[in-house]
Amino acid sequence: MNRLPLSCIALVSPLSLVCAHGEGVVTARVVLLGEVAVRIDGRSVDLGPAKQRCVLAALAVDAPRLVPADRLVARVWGADAPRRGRKTLYSYLSRLRRALSGTDGVAVVGRSGGYALVVDRLDQVIDLHRFRELCVRAREHGDDVEAARLLTEALALWRGSALTGVNGAWVDAERDRLEQERLAARNDLSDARLRLGHGARLVVELAARAAEHPWDERVAGQYMLALHQNGRTADALAHYRRLRERLVAELGTDPGAALRELHRQVLAADPALSPATTDPGGPRAVPLQLPSAPALFTGRVPELAELDRALATSDDPAGHGDGGAGTTAVISAIGGTGGVGKTWLALTWANRNLHRFPDGQLFVDLRGFSPGDPKQATEVLADFLSALGVERDRQPADPDARAALYRTHTTGKRLLVLLDNAASVEQVVPLLPGGGSCTVLITSRHRLPALLARHGARPVRVGLLTDAEARALLDTALGAARGADVERAVAELIAWCGGFPLALGLIAARVRSHPDLLHDVVAELREHGLHALDSDDPEASLPAVLSWSLRHLTERQREVFALLGVAPGPDTDPHAAASLTGSSTPDTRAVLRALTDASLITPVPGGRYAMHDLVRAYAGATAHATLPAAVRRAALDRVVDFYLHTAHTADRLLDPHRETIRLAPPAPGVRPRQLPDVPAALAWLDTHHPHLLAAQHTAIAHRRHETVWHLAWVLTTFQRHRGHRHDELAVWRAAADAELPDLAARTLVHRLLGDAHAALGQHEVAVAHLHEALALAERHGNHAQQAHTHHTLSWVWEQRGDDRQALEHARRALTLYRALDQPVGEAVALNAVGWYAARLGDHDSGRADCRAGLALYRRHHDLAGEAAALDSLGYIEHHTGHHRQAVHHYREALALRRALGNTNQAADTLDNLGHPHAALGERARAREVWREALVSYREQGRNADAERVRRQLRDLDGLDDTTT
C-alpha cells in the first residue's frame, strides 16, 4: 500500500489539508470542532481525544519551529495542568505520530527540549502560513491591483472563526491574535481598493465593519473615504463628527492625527483623495538621498537582526511587534552614547534593504548633537517635499500645513526616512510620514521615551563592540599580514578602547594611511589617554563628540555627570550618587534617568549605573575643568563617608560580638544605607566591595588617615568570610602606611596586618608585625589588645607547625580575657586551647575546653563562634573514633557558616566532613562533600587546599577500585 503525501495543514476552522497524491490533488481536512479528524479522500484518520487534537493544533501553529514541552503542556492544559501532564503529553505525541505515520510530508518530530510539526514547503502546507505569505507579498507589491488580488486570495482561506470548538486560555488568546491578523488583512484590502477608486462598492462592507469596530480609527477613515468617493461627503463628515463626540465624551480625547488630517482633506475636497489624481501616470519623483554604507562597519549582528524584525513586524497584519498595528509609521529609534556607532548601523541596515523601498529614501542629519544649531523641522520639510516633487514656491509657509502636505505625499508610499542625530521628540514628530507604509529610522543619543510611548517606536540600543568585532575593524585598516609585535599592539588597542567604536574608528583612520605609526599611536595612548584622541577637527575628536552630549543637559545634570567621573568604584547606585551629589535620593534618581536618556550612563543589573571607561575619563576631565576643587573634595568626602558608614553597619550585622570602633559622624548630606539583616549586609558588601577598596584609595589621596584604617576594619570580617585574603592584606598595608598618632590604632593595625600576612603563608613577616603589636600593647597597658594579639599568634604558630607554641599563646589569651571579664573572648580562647590540646593528643582535655567554649558562645548568641567550636569538636570526635558524632558536629558547623555567608570557612568544614564519612565507609557522601569543597577552594583561589582535596578524592576513588 502506497503512503499518501500530506502537503497542507490549515489552521482556520475547519482546518483544511491539501494532499498531493500522484499527479492529482487530494483534499483533506482537519476539523477542530469538538473532535479533531484528519480526512484524506473521505477517509478519517483517528486523532484521539480533544486534548490530543489540541496538541496537534499547538504544534501546527508554530510549525516547523520547535515548541518546548513545557509550553505544549501550558497550551493544552493552561494553569490547570495535571501533575502528570508531561507524561500524558508524551502519550498524546506518540499517538499522533502513529496517526500520521501513513502520510508523507508531515511528521511530529522530537528534538532537544521539545517537539515540532515538520512539513514540506511550509507556505504550501499550512494555510495559516499561506495566508501570511500572501499578505506579505501584497504589502511588498507596488501594484494595488495585484495587492488586492493577493489579499482577496488570502482572506478566502478563512471559513469562519479560527480554532472553533477548541477551548482553553491559549486557544482563546491564539484565536484573538489570528482574528487581529484577519482584520488587518481586510483593512489592507480596503486601502488598496480605495486607492483604486472602489469606494462606492465598499460602503456597505465598511459600514458594517465600522459598526463592529467603533473605536478603530483606521476603519473609520476608510468608511469616510468610501462615502466621500461615493459622493456622500456630508455623510463622511457626519460620521467623523459622531466619532469625535463619542471619543471626547467617553475617553476625553480627540481623534488621532491621521484621522484629523483626512477630515481636513475631505472638508477641503483635496484632489489627493480622488483616485483619478493619485497616480497621474507621469514620471514620479523618487528621492535617493541615502549616503553610502560606511566601509569600516563590522559586526552588529543582533542589532541588524532587531531592525529586520522591526520591519518584518510592520509587514505583519496582526501587529505582533511592540508597536502593534495601525501606527503612523514603522519607527526604530536607534539610541546610544555619542560615538557608539548609531549612524553607521542605520546606514548599513538601510543600504542592505534598499530593495524594500521602491519609492526612495529621505535622509537628514538633524545636527542635534553637533556644532551649531539643530535643524528645524520646517526647513527639513521643505527639503523633503522638494525631493518628493513639490516645488518650493508651491509649499505652504505655515508649519502645520507643510507637515500635512508632507504626510499627503508620503501616504501609500514605501519610503525609507532616516532622521539622523535627533535631539528631541519635537524635532522628529513633524517629519513622520503619513499612512502606515513608510519606514522611519531615527538615531539619537537620547532615548526619546515620548516617541516610544506616543508613536509606537521600537527602541534599538547600540552598545559596545565585542573584542572580535573590534579586531575585525582594525584588521580592515591594517590588513591581514603582520607580525607578533603588531598583534600585541592591536590587542592593547582593543583593550584600551573597550569596544568603543568611535575610538577604534579614529585609530583605524590614523593607521590606515600610515600603518607604520601603529606603535606610535599605542605609545601616545599610554601616555596621554583620552587626550590622544583629541583633534582640531571636531568630527574627529572623541572629547569633542562626547561634549556635544552635554548641550541639552541642565546645569545640575552636567554637574552630576562630572562628579560621576571622579566617584570611587566601577559604577554607582542612586544611594551612593545621592551622597556624592548631596541631593535627596528621589532627585538623584531623576538626574540619573536623564543621564540614561542622554546615553551618558547605562543601567546595569541591580539598579546600578555604569559608564564606559572613555566616557568616564571624559567626565573626570570635565569635573576638573568645570568644578572648583572644593566642590569635588566635598562630594568625594560625602561618598567615602557613605561607603564607610554603610559598611560599618554591615560589619556589625556580620559580627555583632566584634570589638567596636568609634567613627566620626558622616558629612552633611550623607545618607548611609540601613541594612536589615545578615543576608542584606552580605549582598551589599558583595556588590560594593570594589567601591570600598576604591573609597580607601580616595581617602589615602585626601590624607584622611583615620578613614583609611576604618575602611580596612569594616572590610575585614567580610573579606575573611569570602576569602578575599589578598584584598585584606592590601587594605591593612594601606592602613599601616597612614599617619596614625593614636597608639591603640597603631597596635590594632600591626595586629591585623600580621593576621593578613599569616593568612597568605607569610609567617615571618606576620610574626614581626604581631610582636610589634604585642610590644605596643604591653607598653601602654592595653590588655585587650594583648589578648587579641596572643590569640592571633597562636593561629600563626599553628600555621608554622608548632602546636605547643600555639597552645602557650592561647592560654595567655585565655588568662587575659578572663581577667578582662570578656566572656566571648574567653570562649574564643577556650576553643583555641581545646583545639591545640587535641592536636597534641590530649583529646579529653580538648573536648572539655571546646564544650565550655561552645556553651559560652551559645549563651551570648555568637553564631560564628558556635560554628568554630562545633568544628573543633567534630575534629576531636573523629580522631577518637566517634565518627557519627563527628559528622553531626560538622554538619551543624556547616549550616551555621553557610547561614552567615562564611564561604571561606564553610569550605574548610566541607573538607573536614569528608573524613568521618570516609571512615564510616560512606564513600559516596565523602566524595560529594569533597567535590563541593574542591569547587569552593578553586573559586577562592586556594590552590594548595584544592590540590590536597583533589588527592583525597583520587585516593578515595582508588580505594573504591580496590574494593570492587
From TrEMBL:
The keyword Translocase appears for this protein: no
Cross-referenced SUPFAM superfamilies: C-terminal effector domain of the bipartite response regulators, P-loop containing nucleoside triphosphate hydrolases, TPR-like
Taxonomic superkingdom: Bacteria
Regions recorded as binding DNA: 16-119
InterPro entries (UniProt xref): AfsR-DnrI-RedD_regulator, BTAD, OmpR/PhoB-type_DNA-bd, P-loop_NTPase, Sig_transdc_resp-reg_C-effctor, TPR-like_helical_dom_sf, TPR_rpt, WH-like_DNA-bd_sf
Presence of the UniProt keyword Iron in the record: no
Keyword field: DNA-binding, Transcription, Transcription regulation
Domain OmpR/PhoB-type positions: 16-119
Listed PROSITE patterns: OMPR_PHOB (PS51755)
Signal peptide residue numbers: none
Family affiliation: Belongs to the AfsR/DnrI/RedD regulatory family.
Protein name: BTAD domain-containing putative transcriptional regulator
Provenance organism: Saccharothrix mutabilis subsp. mutabilis
Source lineage: Bacteria, Bacillati, Actinomycetota, Actinomycetes, Pseudonocardiales
